[in-house]
Specification:
Shape: globular
Distance between the termini: 51 Å
Largest sheet: 6 strands, mixed
Number of helices: 10
Strand order of the largest sheet: 6-7-8-3-9-10
Order of helices and strands: EEEHEEHEHHHEHEHEEHHH
Strand content: 15-25%
Helix content: 25-40%
Number of strands: 10
CATH topology of the domain at 1-94 and 192-253: Rossmann fold
CATH class of the domain at 1-94 and 192-253: Alpha Beta
Length: 272
């Protein structure tokens, strides 16, 4: 779907669920640099959604504004019908967030971190303990639950962060590069939990620049480049006639190979 229009894939048709996320005229500038340039987007509920784009496209800035971590210069964001800036408490109660620059209380153990998170969310202690035990088991962290988070590997940190984001059973889960730096075993575990979560009718929105991963996981995609949405829709709609999402993505963002690359690097790999 072309840039500049809001296509209500959900919410505009009687009898369908409203969008999980609605973004209207969203702008963010850092000095002279425009990070997000007036995007409009409606993300359908109950889907596994990929926000894809090259590095510097504005994905993290967009997710930060959608989740209330960064105030936009202009524009409006609704998550499950609640305005992010007019009703921040209502939105935060309904979302889970796993940011790219994950910061955790490193002097707590994994179980202590979940207990603390659950109580901050207002869950009863017994319910927190039950959910924490289940999440630790499913995410293969039960054996490390009493280790300090400071001693966790990158994959373990991503998994305990995901557990904390899921603990209160949010309606929408936002993940920024959740598989970055994660080993294949941990990645498969995370993937299984996310697929089970969306299978229950919840919504996952995750950003990535790895097209193969998005194509294998997502059923709805938004392509972002230079602060704008270049295309959005189902995976099939965004791919169009391209052989893969990677090929469609390269065409959408205007990436072209340099024909003179071999000549300009004729020194590379030669005799030293």
């Amino acid at each position: 779907m072309p840039d500049g229009t809001v296509e209500d894939v959900a919410g505009g048709v009687p009898g369908t669920a409203p969008p999980a996320v609605r973004v209207e005229g969203l702008w963010k500038r850092f000095g002279e640099q425009v990070a997000v340039a007036g995007i409009d987007l409606a993300l359908p509920a109950g889907r596994f959604i990929g926000l894809v784009g090259p590095n510097g496209a504005g994905k993290t800035t967009t997710l930060s504004m959608v989740t209330g971590l960064l105030r936009p210069d202009r524009g409006r964001v609704e998550v499950v019908g609640h305005d992010v800036w007019r009703d921040p408490a209502g939105v935060k109660a309904r979302i889970g967030v796993l940011p790219e620059g994950l910061r955790l209380f490193e002097r707590l153990s994994g179980r202590e971190l979940l207990a603390y998170t659950g109580r901050l969310r207002g869950l009863p202690g017994t319910e927190v303990d039950k959910r924490a035990t289940q999440l630790l088991e499913v995410l293969d962290l039960a054996g490390a639950q009493h280790k300090l988070v400071v001693d966790y590997s990158t994959g373990m940190r991503k998994k305990i962060g995901l557990a904390a984001a899921l603990l209160h059973n949010p309606e929408v889960l936002f993940l920024d590069e959740p598989f970055e730096g994660v080993d294949p075993v941990s990645a498969q575990t995370i993937r299984g939990v996310l697929e089970r979560y969306t299978g229950s009718g919840a919504t996952v929105v995750f950003s990535s620049h790895v097209m193969e991963l998005v194509e294998s996981l997502c059923d709805w995609v938004a392509v972002m480049a230079a602060g704008r949405i270049r295309a959005h829709g189902t995976l099939a709609e965004v791919r169009g006639g391209a052989p893969s999402l990677q090929a469609a993505f390269l065409e959408l963002v205007g990436a072209r190979g340099r024909d003179d690359a071999g000549e300009s690097l004729d020194w590379l790999g030669g005799a030293r």
